[in-house]
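so im writing up the methods section and need the Thymine dioxygenase record in one place, dumping it here so i stop losing it
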Amino acid sequence: MDFPQLDYADVTSGDPARRERFAAELVKSFETFGFASIINHEVPEETIKECFEYSRKFFALPHETKMLSKHPRGIAPRGYSFVGQENLSSLTRADRNMAKYIETKESWDQGAPNDTPNPTNWAATEAIPGFREFMEAMFNTMHDFEERLLSALALGLGLPATHFDRMHTDRVNEFRLLHYPEVKVKDILTPDATQRTRASEHTDFGSLTLLFQDSVGGLEVEAHDQPGTFYPIKAASPAMIINIGDSMQRWTNDRLRSTIHRVSVPAALRKAGEDGSEDAVIPSRYSIVFFGKPNRDVSLYPFPQFMKTGTKYPDITAGEYNHVRVVTTQPQ
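--- predicted struct ---
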């Protein structure tokens, strides 16, 4: 899917007209696709490369070492999740008549240092000098840029630039490294009771998601006007991919909708698998994801500006909504 690539230099130029144009284009891209791609953002390319390198080092650790930081039971993803531990198909399986997939991915998750109710277990990362210091700094970098994007989004929606500030003061965001190990194409495309996928169809829960991906491919987005039709997102690092989460959809009463997306077989390899090739292999894929989330006590009830024809959603706090959604993805 070739949605417009927005230039964040329009925001930092000092030209109010360019800033307003960026804000309007951001809203239009979200209204049309639920996603946007941004260049010239404020995360340095060298920092992104370093983050990918730390990611490769972490996932290359022995399984026993990674399990020192095993993700505990609970609603806040923290630490290491092994292949098959998280199941996103639980989020959409019931209403889409989907089979339960085995998801061939592993992840590292961390929260903010001040999120004391949900601490990050760093034990496994002690094997990688500098990992914790870098990742905590990267968390802050991503958080700060998310705040700037929320300001631009507010302007594009006709709201004060500071509208979202008070809803995101607690830094209850989640920062994730993802690794999708090499897998044969036929193992993903063969329909059976134990079908595997890389990441099942799902939406994100928060306000905005910020993502960097490598060039392997496989990230796909469902068309708003064509349910069941998915298009590949080709933008790769250093371009940043951003998308709307469920919280923003509720606040805007569906003006902006969180789009269903998944990670599947890259388009370039799909034909080989469909032709019955036994040897076609999807290479390892890495991505970096920052899930921007509202304070847990913030209401997700639609803003008055978007309720001219009534509301589509009951009142619920961000924390309550997050609990309902996350608990379904974890093993029982």
